[in-house]
Design goal:
By secondary structure, the chain is α+β, with helices and mostly antiparallel strands. It has a single domain, classed as endopeptidase fold (from Nostoc punctiforme) (Alpha-Beta Complex). It is built from 6 helices and 9 strands. It has a 7-stranded antiparallel sheet. Strands 6-7 form a two-stranded parallel ribbon. Strand 6, helix 4 and strand 7 form a beta-alpha-beta unit. The radius of gyration is 15 Å and the shape is globular.
Length: about 190
């Protein structure tokens, strides 16, 4: 049995504030990792820490880019125990996509339609929650409760089998990371059902 990890965040960007205003969700961004240290962390995000676009498939390091400059944002880390085969498939899917990262674009239209609960997907276009859903569902790691293009970042915290490992500020999360052990939980694990 292996685990897949997701990081939920809510930044102070205009897009994040608009999403939060529209949905009232505690978190507005999600990224995925296959290591307890959360590195590498994969997601559909801005390519420059100072501009929302262009955005696309990328790694999101804690020591560089947006996360380095914005340590006080709220975040949560969830663990999904999965079968070895689901883990292998998910990781292979992300590796394959990363090898061709320039083929993928940010699904800005899909993001706005998601906020209106209108399903919409395009080949090779994703927003963050859509990307994570695509990986988790197509690897058979989890069964999603709704269409991939309608998933919000906070929906992942409510999936059966999700365990909260950490909730607090990004600054506290980064301070508690100690590879190879990974994240040190601030409190006991809780099961979200």
């Amino acid at each position: 049995m292996k685990s897949i990890y997701i990081l939920l965040t809510r930044s102070e960007t205009y897009i994040s504030k608009l999403i939060h205003l529209t949905t009232a969700d505690a978190y507005t961004h999600v990224a995925i990792s296959f290591d307890r240290s959360l590195q590498p962390l994969y997601g559909f995000a801005r390519k420059s820490p100072h501009r929302p676009l262009p955005a696309g498939l990328r790694t999101e390091p804690f020591h560089d880019g947006y996360y380095r400059e914005h340590r006080d944002i709220p975040c949560a880390v969830y663990e999904f125990p999965v079968s070895d085969e689901a883990y292998r498939r998910a990781r292979q899917m992300v590796d394959d996509m990363m090898q061709n990262a320039d083929w993928y674009r940010y699904n800005l239209l899909g993001l706005f339609l998601c906020a209106m609960n209108i399903p919409f997907s395009r080949k090779r276009y994703f927003f963050c929650a859509e990307f994570v859903g695509y990986i988790l569902q197509n690897s058979q790691a989890v069964i999603l409760p709704k269409e991939i293009s309608l998933m919000h970042p906070v929906d992942y915290a409510m999936l059966p089998g999700a365990y909260c490992l950490f909730e607090g500020s990004l600054r506290d999360l980064v301070a508690r990371r100690s590879p190879p052990a990974g994240i040190i939980p601030l409190r006991r694990r809780i099961h979200i059902s």
